[in-house]
Structure formats: structure tokens, C-alpha cells
Amino acid sequence: MNTTEYLARVTFGYPAIDNHAHPLLTAANRNAFPFEGLVSEANPDQGLTTNAPFTLACYRAMAQLIRLYRLNAEATWEEVKAARSSLDYDQLCVRCMEPTRIQCILMDDGLGGVSELAEGYKWHDRFTASRTKRIVRVEILAESVLVGVLEGMITSGMVSPPHSVTLFIDRLTEAIQEAANNPEVVGFKSIACYRTGLDIAVTSHREEIERSIMGIVLRYATTKKLRLADKPINDMIVLTTLRIAGQCGKPVQFHTGLGDNDITLKLSSPSHMQPIIKAHPQTKFVLLHSSYPYTREAGYLTATYPNVYLDFGEVFPFLSAEGQRNVVRQVLELAPTNKILWSTDGHWWPESYYLGTLQAREILYDVLSASVKAHELTEVQAIGIAKRALFENSNNLYNLGLKPQW
Q1: Of 177, 207, 240, 355, which one has the greatest count of Cβ atoms within 10 A?
Q2: Residues 6 or more apart whose Cβ sits within 8 Å of residue 246
Q3: Is residue 392 part of a domain?
Q4: With DSSP H G I counted as helix, E B as strand and the rest as coil, what are the percentages for the chain, rounded to 5?
Q5: How many domains does the chain have?
Q6: Which residue from 173, 190, 209 is spatially nearest to 286, judged by alpha carbons?
Q7: Which residue range forms the structural domain that includes residue 294?
Q8: Cα separation of 24 and 105, whole Å?
Q9: 372 domain-assigned
């Protein structure tokens, strides 16, 4: 055996817990979104299909998909898309999911479009040895609660900001508490990063919330649409979630860093979260998506605060291979290896799970084996890191009580 042969067996074959993913599209909706979204966060109306095929991330993904679909090595991107469209959808899902060795998926099913276009979270159990669990997206939960409050106000013709705020907070608290008590729910997720940024206030101010509610009432009465992007309200939603989650021992995931252009990039750094992390020491924070390009800031928080964990996901397959290696190296620069988690951020297409797993295992092996060969780690230590990152840390953090099907 060479010095990393057993490390390779573990890194490529050990079962994994995908600590953050989203549902797959139904067969009828398999082409609802441009397939280029597999490798880019760009929006369809802002150059996604034109530019994404010319990225290093797409070239690498294309080579891997050519092998998956059993195409000629010289196949073009258009031929790759045509090949996957010609495959039976159930067979395509199995072909993509089977090699991943994902044992359990923790699924955020609050992504926009899921209810209309995607499968329910339990449907995904067919691909895993352990049952899929839910991550509740709190802003979506809050919007459903607030719609009920607003409809009641409009129907009664009584618009009272103080009363509506009290009613909203009470009902939101009940809804979050109910979710926290649900054994199917293992954690929460906030997209404050998208809505108002990660500079979340440590305290809520009632007067500001009431003013925001008045604006929301006027907009909703006209459009019958609701998207919470009012900082006083969004901050209150996060703070309420952090309090209840801390009491119930359920981690709270935060989108950080990498996203589409709906994000204000400078407000997507997890460094903005230091005050709320300090203010909620009993609540476990999970910084999602490697916080790219703010990975080092995330590593710093993970090393400094015992209640912070770092997920090294989504960069697979959105970055080039070298970019991914740099991210994993930065994660390991400072973050304790018992506090790093892995995810695919799989969504819509089964290929997102396939590439997210294949590339993560490849890069994790590259980085760890290089450290072993440089005598910075023993192979035993590297194997321990791989097992913790892929399975054990998520199993412990979310209290899943699983045994690896190894």
C-alpha cells in the first residue's frame, strides 16, 4: 500500500451526510430551469446560458457528465444537455444518486418554486439508507404566518400596527416552536443574507417593526404578494429563531457568501454576524456555502466561537478545481476539524448531487493526501478528518443518531 491508499478508500467510499440540500424537480418539470444553473449562480436573464458554458467549472463538470452519460469524450455542452434530456428521468436520478454514497439528506424545502415544481422531501428517501430530514427556512415560514395576519386585517377592515405586530410575533413564535418540536425537523435556515444582509441587529425595536408593517400592509393590499425584505422585521425573525433554536438544541444555518446578484456582496460576509454569535452562545450557528469568498473569515469565527460550525459546500461544482482546493485549504487553515461539515447544496437536477459529491471527495482527498505526503498529517489523522467532515460532525451536530453504512 502507498501512504494514502486507505485514505483514498475512505474519502471516496465513506458514507456521507449531506447537511444542506434542496429537492429535485419532478419528472414533468425536469427542464423547468436552464441546465447551466448547475454550474453558475448567474440569473437566466443576465448571461447564465451565454457565459456559464465558458467557465472552468463548466468545462470540468462537462467532462464528468460525459463519463456519467457515457458519451464520446469530444461531446459538446449542447450534446451533453441533449443526452441527459433523452434519458428516462427515474434512471437518470438513480444513475446520479447511487455513486454519491449519501446516507442521509438534510433538506431545505423552502426554496422558491419547490411547492410547484419539485418533489417532496420524503420522496428522496429512495436514494438514501437513512430517512431525509427537514431544515425549515424561517423567512418563508414567517411570510406564511404574516399573510394570515394581513388577510385577517384586510377582511376586518381594521389596520392596527401595534395589534398586528403583537399577533405576528405571537404566531411566528408558535410556528417556530412547533417546528422545533417536530422530530422531522433537525434545524433551521435563514436567508437574511439575501433579504437584508448579515449585519443583523442584536435587539429588535418595536417602533421600527410597526412602521415596516404599515408599508407591508399597503403593498400587500395592492399586489397580494409578500416578500419580507424589511430589516427590522427580518432581524426580528432571525432573533426569534435563534432564541427558540438555542432552547431546543436545533442548529440554525445561515446562507453566507456565494449567491446570485440578489445578494449585496459586502453584506454576505459572516464577519457581520459576530455580534449575534456572541449574543446567543447557546445557539449553534452553521455558516453555509464555505462563505466564499469570505472563507477565512468563516474559519476565524469557527475557531473562535464554540457555537459556530462551517459548511464547505456549494463551491462544488461552482468553482474551478483549483479554486475548490484553495477553499478547502482555507477551511482547514484555522477551523477545528470537528466543526466542519459537508453539503452538496443539491437542487433541481440530480446531477447537482452527483457533481457536488464527486468533486468534494476528489478535492478533500487531494488536500488531505498532500498534507500526508508532506508529513504534516499522518494517514490516520487524515482519515479521521475525512470521516468527521463527511459524516460524524453532522451526525453529532444535528443529533441524528445514525451509524455509517460502511
Answers
A1: 355
A2: 280, 282, 283, 284
A3: yes
A4: 60, 10, 30
A5: 1
A6: 190
A7: 5-29+44-397
A8: 12
A9: yes
Evaluate whether 22 touches 111 at the Cβ level (below 8 Å): yes
Under a CB-based contact definition with an 8 Å cutoff, are residues 23 and 107 in contact? yes
- pLDDT tens per residue across span 63-115: 999 999 999 999 999 999 999 999 999 999 999 999 999 999 999 999 999 99
Long-range contact list for 200-207, CB < 8 A, 24+ apart? Answer: 200/234, 200/235, 200/238, 200/239, 200/272, 200/273, 200/275, 200/276, 201/231, 201/232, 201/235, 201/239, 202/239, 202/275, 202/276, 202/279, 203/239, 204/232, 204/235, 204/236, 204/239, 205/232, 206/165
Cα–Cα distance for residue pair 291/287, rounded to 1 Å: 7
> What's the pTM?
0.96
53-62 residue pLDDT tens = 999 999 999 9
Residue pointed to by grid coordinates 376586518: 156
Name the 3-class secondary structure at 106. strand
| Number of residues written out for the chain | 406
How many CB atoms lie under 10 A from the CB of residue 201?
18
**Rg (Cα) of the chain, in Å, rounded?**
22
Cell 451536530 identifies what position? 397
Measure CA of the first residue to CA of the last residue in the chain; give whole Å.
21
